[in-house]
Recover the amino acids of this structure.
């Protein structure tokens, strides 16, 4: 981990923060002014920068702007007196990670700095991940299977059938299959069967000769011909009309086709990758899709998992899409708070990866602050949750979104498991106080945290990242807690 930099012209503030961070084993450096920081930034950079807003010479707001130009992902915490609150909020909206009002509680300051450190580490790890896999992102086991399949199929010309819900990334995978094949330097042509009017689809696919029908004033090459030597991606193949299915079957079996109105056979040299969100086997049973064509297409079937089956990828995908949107719009990319990330990680996402990308673009444009909180999410997203999110919102301290929701179990509710646990807790506190036990608060907090983390790890089968996401805390936080509480196996 890099060093936390503290800049304040008040020596006592620097001393207090240095001592507090040292006790927490967080390396830090102190600077008396912004000019010193700017000079040091020429050959070094911190993990987190903590800066006062009012300083002689270059003030905190100017320092923030200068730092963000060189290191846009660096978390900056602005310290401010109450009279400077408007300036601090303005800085916050301009890219600061958070602001810290003076006078501050030292423990809260350290916790805020630790959160910023966790965020900085996550961002740097995400940048490495995005650099390693720029075209398709996914750490889930199901996505690793997809990556392995792409690798195995990279040197093959075999026909591939991609299945998966709308928005799960079928065209992205088709493009990856093309990019990693010997055909990579040849065209990749995509055609969505559901987007072309039925009476134009045959001409769109196979082309037509001049005069083949009314309005055909010139010869036109179809998608098969345009994809010559490359890859033809036929999306939503389940919507192909039955008469066109017969023609496609002939191309796949004979390797030749005719333009509409043509008499000369044309050799089909394009590799075909088809995709559908429908159950083609069921459509075959219903008689709406040819069985022989289905078997021709279904040489290799590759199923793409919906986003709800790979929730561990939501954090990685969110960072990627927020960074992408920020780059496209020429602004600094937004960040999701731990609570917001935990919240969206449990949304149903019927639109899958495409819906998540659209959400990130919306947040880049319309979210009011640089760090996105639950209340900054679109109203329809905050209402698009299941009852399983209620205990999550309660455990993270986040306010549950307004609107019609499933009933929430609260401690006084007779349905709450094991009775009224708050009353039981109060009884235990009273018992320990009467017994004269020292450090009752510290002891009970440790017991509570241990129970929560132990239960979360059991629920996620020992996966710490999943447990951290479900609890709404950072990965480094849960790792530190496990060590401090002696929960290591």
């Amino acid at each position: 981990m890099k060093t936390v930099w503290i800049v304040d012209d008040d020596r006592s503030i620097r001393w207090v923060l240095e001592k507090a961070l040292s006790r927490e084993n967080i390396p830090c450096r102190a600077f008396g002014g912004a000019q010193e920081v700017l000079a040091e930034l020429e050959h070094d950079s911190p993990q987190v920068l903590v800066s006062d807003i009012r300083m002689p010479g270059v003030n905190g707001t100017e320092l923030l702007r200068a730092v963000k130009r060189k290191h846009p992902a660096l978390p900056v915490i602005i310290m401010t007196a109450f009279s400077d609150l408007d300036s601090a909020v303005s800085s916050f909206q301009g890219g600061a990670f958070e602001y810290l009002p003076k006078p501050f509680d030292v423990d809260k300051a350290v916790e805020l700095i630790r959160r910023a450190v966790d965020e900085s580490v996550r961002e740097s790890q995400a940048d490495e991940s995005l650099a390693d896999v720029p075209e398709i992102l996914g750490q889930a086991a199901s996505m690793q299977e997809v990556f392995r399949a792409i690798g195995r199929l990279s040197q093959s010309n075999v026909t591939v059938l991609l299945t998966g819900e709308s928005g799960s990334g079928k065209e992205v995978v088709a493009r990856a299959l093309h990019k990693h094949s010997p055909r990579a330097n040849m065209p990749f042509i995509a055609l969505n069967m559901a987007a072309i009017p039925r009476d134009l689809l045959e001409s769109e696919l196979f082309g037509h000769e001049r005069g083949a029908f009314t309005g055909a004033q010139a010869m036109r090459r179809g998608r098969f011909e345009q994809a010559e030597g490359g890859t033809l991606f036929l999306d939503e193949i389940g919507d192909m009309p039955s008469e066109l299915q017969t023609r496609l079957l002939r191309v796949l079996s004979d390797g030749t086709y005719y333009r509409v109105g043509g008499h000369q056979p044309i050799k089909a040299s394009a590799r075909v990758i088809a995709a559908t969100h429908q159950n083609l086997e069921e459509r075959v049973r219903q008689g709406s899709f040819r069985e022989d064509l289905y078997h021709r297409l279904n040489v290799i079937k590759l199923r793409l998992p919906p986003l709800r089956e790979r929730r561990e990828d939501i954090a990685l995908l969110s960072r990627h899409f927020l960074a992408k949107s920020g780059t496209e719009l020429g602004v600094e990319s937004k960040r999701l708070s731990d609570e917001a990330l935990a919240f969206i990680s449990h949304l149903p996402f019927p639109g899958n990866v495409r819906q998540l990308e659209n959400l990130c673009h919306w947040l880049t444009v319309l979210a009011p602050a640089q760090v996105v909180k639950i209340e900054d999410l679109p109203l329809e997203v905050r209402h698009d949750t299941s009852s399983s999110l209620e205990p999550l919102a309660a455990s993270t301290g986040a306010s549950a979104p307004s609107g019609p929701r499933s009933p929430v179990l609260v401690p006084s509710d007779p349905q709450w498991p094991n009775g009224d646990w708050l009353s039981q807790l109060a009884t235990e506190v009273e018992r320990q106080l009467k017994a004269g036990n020292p450090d009752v608060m510290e002891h009970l907090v440790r017991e509570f945290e241990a129970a929560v983390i132990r239960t979360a790890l059991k629920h996620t089968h020992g996966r710490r990242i999943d447990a951290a996401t479900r609890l709404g805390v950072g990965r480094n936080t849960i790792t530190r807690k496990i060590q401090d509480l002696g929960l290591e196996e």
